[in-house]
Automatic annotation (TrEMBL):
InterPro entries: D-isomer_2_OHA_DH_cat_dom (IPR006139), D-isomer_DH_CS1 (IPR029752), D-isomer_DH_NAD-bd (IPR006140), D-LDH-like (IPR058205), NAD(P)-bd_dom_sf (IPR036291). PANTHER family: 2-HYDROXYACID DEHYDROGENASE HOMOLOG 1-RELATED. The keyword NAD applies. The keyword Oxidoreductase applies. Belongs to the D-isomer specific 2-hydroxyacid dehydrogenase family. Keywords: NAD, Oxidoreductase. Residues 111-297 form the D-isomer specific 2-hydroxyacid dehydrogenase NAD-binding domain. Residues 3-328 form the D-isomer specific 2-hydroxyacid dehydrogenase catalytic domain. This is 2-hydroxyacid dehydrogenase. It comes from Suilimivivens aceti. It comes from the Bacteria.
Amino acid sequence: MKILFYDTKSYDKESFDAALSRFPEIEIEYIKYDLDPRTASLAEGFDAVCAFVSSNVGEQTLEILHSKGVSLVLMRCAGFNNVDSAKATELGIRIMRVPNYSPEAVAEHAMALALACNRRLYKAYNKVRENDFSLAGLMGFNFHGKTAGIIGTGKIGAAMCRICNGFGMKVLAYDMYQNPDLKDFVTYVSLDEVLSGSNLISLHCPLTDDTYHLINIETIKKMMDGVILVNTSRGALVKTDDLIEGIRMHKFAGVGLDVYEEETKNVFEDRSDEILEHSTTARLLSFPNVMITSHQGFFTREAMEAIAETTLENALTYAAGKESKNDVK
Ligand code: NAD
């Protein structure tokens, strides 16, 4: 089986090359371009393509892949909001993903963002490097004894519930389905109760039509003053202009974002020489209580190994014509 691997970074090649020794039937060609309608035709002669969170796996891309004889898209990630799965089904292209590589990797990053915002670690780090040992602007609050509100308690949300519980926090959660593994220490309540009753709100639901702009000015107004908001899920769960309005209203003690609406053209690119014009991200970064990371929640050694292993197993499952729980329906 021949796979064209889009949007290759050095760490992708390292983890997939290490895993390939266990999959002698698979050959990978790595390219730097991301998958989109301009680059899809490069897949001619390949059985499958491997794509990632900022790839464009929309209607036009899928039509081109189909015309070039590609019938498998291997998403090396959990989320698939960038895939037109209805179009893929219509064209007979199978989409497979890695739903469960390391929920703890993302949950630990969510807590890292929450702590960094709460204790202004980014500011403290820079102050001390400048020989400024004063504490002005660094005061946070104890998480112990406070309430965490987790929206979406699937794999990553459940890991975040366990971490918050370990910090001595009361844990409230909102999800359409109650996770039975959490029943001893999580209280399921309505979305409004999570919003109004939590000192730390962390988003772990997928991006769907129902969750698009779940955090908007109306939901922000329901939050308690001095809340910390963390988003490691998908950028469009939060309406950025409304978030900026909420920050200007002094609603938040801190906002930690691993994902944000404008991220697609930034993700994993070095744009440090550019002037980011008309950028709401730049506006967000102008606030002292906002910390943004570049979609790195998944980025641990364990997660990268698991992603490579499962992606290659997916390719073999496809080659064997077997069904899989990793299929995107
Ligand atoms: P999951 O499918 O295990 O859990 C998602 C949970 O959200 C489910 O329990 C589901 O019932 C719930 N949900 C769905 N719609 C909801 C709604 N409207 N309101 C409340 N809850 C709702 O998924 P997961 O593995 O925990 O991943 C969650 C998300 O994290 C992914 O969709 C992806 O977008 C994101 N993610 C980010 C990174 C990163 O690097 N930052 C890495 C992996 C995944």
